[in-house]
Amino acid sequence: MLLPIALLAQVAVTTPPLVFSGIDRRLTVTIPRLDRPATVDGQLDEPAWAHAALLTGFTQFSPTDGIPAADSTQILVWYSATAIHFGIRAFESHGTPHATIADRDHIFADDNVQLLIGTFPGGQQATLFAVNALGQQGDGVTVESGNPGGGATGSSREAPDLSPDFDFQSKGELTPWGYQVEVRIPFRSLRYQSSQVQSWNLNIVREVKHSAVNDSWAPVRRASSSFLGQSGTLVDLRDIHRGLVMEFNPEFTQTVAGTSTPTGYGYRTETPRLGGNFRWGISNNVALNATVRPDFSQVESDAGQLTFDPRQALFFPEKRPFFLDGIELFQLPLPLVYTRRIADPVAALKITASRAGATIGVLGAIANENGTDDKSHFGILRAQQDLGGQSRLGVTYTGHTQSGDVNHLAGVDGRLLLGSQYSLQFQVAGSETRSNGIRRNGALWYGQLNANGRHIGLAASITGIGDDLVADAGFIRRPGVVTSLIDTRITGYGRAGNRLQSITANIGLQGNWQYGSFIQGRGIQDKKLHLNTTALFRGGGSAFVGVFIELFGYDPSLYRDYALEKRSAGGGLDTIPFTGQPTIPNAEVFVQFLTPEWRNLTANLGYLGGHDEDFYEWASGTLNYMHAELNWRPTGRGRLAFSYDWQQVNRRTDGTLVHVARIPRLKLEYQLTRTAFLRLVGEYNQDKIDSLRDVSRTEAPILIRGPEGYARTAAKTTNAFHGDALFSYQPRPGTLFFAGYGSAWNESATTRPNHLSRQSDRFFLKATYLFRF
User: Fold this and answer.
1) pLDDT (tens digit, 9 = 90+) per residue, 709-728?
2) Is 54 in a helix, a strand, or coil?
């Protein structure tokens, strides 16, 4: 629809004299400093807005870069002594914007505008402030890892980490011509350089959901090794005051827990837990955080995951507020800092600082080990220096002591930009571990080269993790292995208006070695060839087809506790070693379909099937795997998310079942107000495994060694259900009230959910209030 003439006249009257057009590459922006009051009401009618700088001239960067945006966007900017203000006018001539009353960080299925502010030199990280058309908020941090052009589609932007929360104000409304939003970001919510005159990187991204188009103010090209490095610049910010930010955040948690006992089911009221967090912004770029007896209760349990390869550990994200503050300073190529290892902190202290392109973070914690009073101590140090031109160099140290056992780890990492389209990332580390009087030393090394062109991309990497590498404060997915990977990408783009917007072909080659075999020059263990094709369609739908051809080698370390049962000539039973066949060939097909971001519904369906390894018996099996997601927004306040994961392995010899797992999960949310919601989560986990036998050779029963010696593996069935109910009121980050209920049910006799029995449940209240001085 066309804008009414009267509206155009109104916009023209309020158009400020300072205009910075991104498409014309007017990217160095001087914004006015105005000491005038402004109420965050979404109206943009205070006198200050008539004097603000105007950022306009957006261009599209996804799915096709370098073309003018189809929908006009205007960003008004000014600042006062204590905050920076943004006024957003998003014009929409093709339809009605998607807008809901959504909880924090759940706005990205709606039309939204994202403000990316990088307050330190180097252009490698930015704080994200996002709003939808109604002013609902999302926020986080982006730290470039050096692979923005990777992945199946050659995306030019890395996903932000939405875990951290920042205090800012916003309000918006739908209009006849689109929507407008007013945003105020206090300087106390930012960390920035210690200088009288500030210069910050800035880019603004607009996501248009009906067309699945992403536009940006600063023109962004896919043929680049950095998304953030293509931002504009806010210059000559003077006389801004963050203030001496001191925050105290006392916490109160009360729990009533129920458990099943042989004599019945009973409840106990636990001792109220009192704790607190303290944060002191010593200066613009130095912060101290402390916590004592914190309550890190999870208000939503981690979603269940299926295990494809038992050699690889499962990763769960950090959710706890104390560790999330400044988390971007501790990010590494391989996560040698993984704060979920600090399971039950008694007290913790963290200091973070940035100056002249250098950042440093120090974290110390005392924690109860495995729910006992056996204390463990963690120490973490991370320092990083920008080298100019968006390159950087970092060092890391982690230490852990507990009951006389000690683990030390130290490493160096870096990222080097080699021209506009090439980057190199590396990491080396070593560990020393003393446990039960035994000393072990281990090594880790990693390197990756990326070439990010618009049509052609290449990523080549090699990673080595020694058998004796121990990272008590980090996450190692699989130790004792060397992995090499080469992935090439070719992308073609459709013409404007075509239904097919782009098509990408990937060829991936991967090899795995046992670490010792690689060092000694012995043969490769696993070989993988992946052939993938991804098509993106107008409106945001996509289709993916992959063919996986693989050869897996026998890993003796995985089966060191395996043996076979053999009947002797005299009729008795003997135990003989388990020796698997040397290799297992695989051939599988994976298909996946994603719907566009329809107004009320999105869906995702993926299926993988074919010949795969049966890790349980080290034999060739038939694998079926399916993942399905459905997200439905029936109203502007209600959301339903359903997912279903199914994985099944059958023997190829006789078709009998080896293992099956099913995980349906349902989450219902209703947003009562902008700051309060109700949430219900239910997850059912069914797992069934057959008694194991040596199907590839002898058909003899498989024995597994336990504390009391070898025992035959018996068929086992597990059913479990976990349910959560939560009421949340959070007027701002740090101030909240939770009232919740969680319940766990299981049984192991059948696969029928109607036989489940309640094993435990709990009611809890949590209240915390943020005092800011």
Assistant:
1) 888 888 999 899 999 999 99
2) strand
